[in-house]
């Protein structure tokens, strides 16, 4: 299958362009922007903004397309949703009901995945720095496999498993030194990235794993980065994985499982999103003949397009003469961090049909947090909006809410799930008092501040 083109700079997509490739969203004359069958204004009226909204139908549809892409190759994979992308219990349960397992990177994610009802036997544990405590948790739970990322971690896991009287099923995560062609901050498969075991040390370490007490090496894992829209990096990486399988087997060792990682990208602006069919074809071509179990760990591709963040224009601030005005939203970098962190581009659609049809203009879209980096977009081409206009920031279902903070004492936004014509609050807006409820002021601080205590 041909490679998909890289995103190219240029004119922002129009309202119609954005809607055309997002089947769960539609614009209606009366109801405005509708997600599945729910007018987003109804949610904003009821809960205010900023509010996250997840579409259960989109999660299901995307999971089914992904699973089916592999099924038709005759080599089905087990799909382990990367919990880091969106860890809400309702999201995990929707995916679990479709058959998804989980890829976790902390003890917290492991416990959360199990709390969502995902069986331990469908959970893989990745991550570059698992503590002995987290290893114990995974061993006691009896998860499918632990993806080990270094020789040092392997020794710690062996000691921990031995002390527990348990055996760890281990896949070695290999760093193939392949450029995934993605943003520098989210690439993971290059030699200078912290992730994985150097490719040229993999066979030796696998042999060592086979000797270590408490360790049962079952295979290899790889994850080369995130938001990958071209297939060539996957192909190169998987070809290297296949070479390793042959080299390890030549040593008389068993390789029964291959975890092909996540990373499939979506269309935020005008990229052609990574096609599951193309990924399935790449995996089938490079690894399908090795007779192993196959797994993938997608996060963004499943959840990204399923979520939006609703926000309201607090005010329209005039810029310097001749410069674009600022639309100051009530959402900020503490809610959606991706634009500040990676200069990520997110589509912005007005909720009202009339606004969506207004003439376009160039604006800067910012949040109210005290950081210049609190910017959703510079020089964006958007329909004219005044204070009070509501918008949806698109493709926020992955790495959105999970990366929120309460910086500037801004409570975590409310979360909603829609499914057909139903919607429900899946997490209420955080009460502001909760932000300091757990703060403890030592008595001696108070004393020092009172005249009686000899302070101020
Ligand atoms: C080990 C591992 N697996 C899976 C993922 C999920 O990646 P993505 O959301 O790009 O599919 C990540 C995040 O990059 C990861 O680090
Ligand atoms: N958080 C990143 C991706 C990192 C994926 C985790 N390894 C994003 O929003 O794009």
UniProtKB/TrEMBL annotation:
Top-level taxon: Bacteria
Residues that coordinate or bind pyridoxal 5'-phosphate: 263, 297-300, 399
Domain Orn/DAP/Arg decarboxylase 2 N-terminal: start-end pairs: 58-303
List of residues that carry N6-(pyridoxal phosphate)lysine: 84
EC number, as in UniProt: 4.1.1.20
Residue positions binding substrate: 300, 338, 342, 371, 399
Keyword Acyltransferase: no
Keywords, in A-Z order: Amino-acid biosynthesis, Decarboxylase, Lyase, Lysine biosynthesis, Pyridoxal phosphate
Residues annotated as catalytic: 370
Alphabetical list of CDD domains matching this protein: PLPDE_III_DapDC (cd06828)
Any GO BP annotation: lysine biosynthetic process via diaminopimelate
Entry cofactors: pyridoxal 5'-phosphate
Pathways involved: Amino-acid biosynthesis; L-lysine biosynthesis via DAP pathway; L-lysine from DL-2,6-diaminopimelate: step 1/1
Classification via InterPro entries: Ala_racemase/Decarboxylase_C, DAP_deCOOHase_LysA, De-COase2_CS, De-COase2_N, De-COase2_pyr-phos_BS, Orn/DAP/Arg_de-COase, PLP-binding_barrel
Any one GO MF annotation of this record: diaminopimelate decarboxylase activity
The reaction(s) this protein catalyses: meso-2,6-diaminopimelate + H(+) = L-lysine + CO2
Quaternary structure and interacting proteins, as annotated: Homodimer.
Primary role: Specifically catalyzes the decarboxylation of meso-diaminopimelate (meso-DAP) to L-lysine.
Protein family: Belongs to the Orn/Lys/Arg decarboxylase class-II family. LysA subfamily.
Protein name: Diaminopimelate decarboxylase
Gene: lysA
């Amino acid at each position: 299958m041909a490679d998909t083109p890289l995103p190219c700079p240029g004119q922002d997509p129009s309202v119609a362009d954005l809607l055309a490739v997002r089947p769960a969203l539609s614009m209606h004359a009366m109801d405005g922007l509708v997600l599945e069958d729910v007018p987003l204004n109804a949610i904003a009226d009821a809960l205010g903004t900023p509010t996250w909204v997840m579409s259960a139908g989109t999660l299901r549809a995307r999971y089914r397309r992904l699973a089916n892409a592999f099924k038709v190759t005759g080599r089905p994979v087990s799909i382990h949703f990367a919990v880091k992308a969106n860890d809400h219990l309702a999201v995990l349960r929707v995916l679990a009901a479709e058959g998804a397992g989980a890829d976790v990177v902390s003890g917290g994610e492991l416990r959360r995945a199990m709390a969502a009802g995902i069986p331990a036997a469908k959970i893989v544990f990745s991550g570059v720095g698992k503590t002995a405590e987290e290893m114990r948790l995974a061993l006691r739970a009896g998860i499918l496999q632990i993806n080990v990322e270094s020789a040092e971690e392997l020794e710690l896991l062996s000691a921990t498993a031995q002390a527990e009287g348990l055996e760890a099923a281990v896949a070695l995560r290999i760093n193939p030194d392949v450029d995934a062609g993605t943003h520098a901050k989210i690439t993971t498969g290059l030699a200078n990235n912290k992730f994985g075991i150097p490719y040229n040390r993999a066979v030796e370490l696998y042999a060592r794993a086979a000797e270590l007490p408490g360790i049962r090496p079952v295979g290899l894992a790889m994850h080369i980065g995130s938001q990958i829209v071209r297939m060539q990096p996957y192909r190169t990486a998987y070809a290297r994985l296949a070479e390793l399988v042959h080299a390890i087997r030549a040593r008389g060792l068993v390789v029964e499982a291959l975890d092909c990682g996540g990373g499939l990208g979506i269309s935020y602006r005008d990229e052609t999103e990574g096609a599951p069919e193309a990924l399935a074809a790449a995996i089938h071509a490079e690894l399908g003949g090795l007779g192993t179990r196959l797994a993938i760990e997608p996060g963004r591709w499943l959840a990204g397009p399923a979520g939006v963040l609703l926000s309201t224009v607090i005010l329209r601030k005039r810029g310097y003469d001749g410069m674009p005005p600022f639309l100051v939203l009530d959402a900020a970098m503490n809610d959606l961090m991706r634009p500040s962190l990676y200069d990520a581009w997110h589509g912005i659609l007005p909720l009202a049909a009339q606004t969506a049809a207004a003439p376009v203009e160039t604006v800067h879209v910012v949040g109210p947090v005290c950081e210049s980096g609190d910017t959703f977009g510079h020089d964006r081409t958007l329909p004219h909006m005044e204070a009070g206009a509501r918008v949806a920031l698109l493709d926020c279902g992955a790495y959105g809410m999970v990366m929120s903070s309460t910086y500037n004492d801004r409570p975590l936004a409310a979360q909603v799930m829609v499914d057909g014509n139903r919607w429900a609050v899946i997490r209420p807006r955080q009460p502001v008092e909760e932000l300091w409820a757990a703060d403890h002021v030592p008595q001696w601080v108070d004393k020092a501040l009172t005249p009686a205590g000899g302070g101020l």
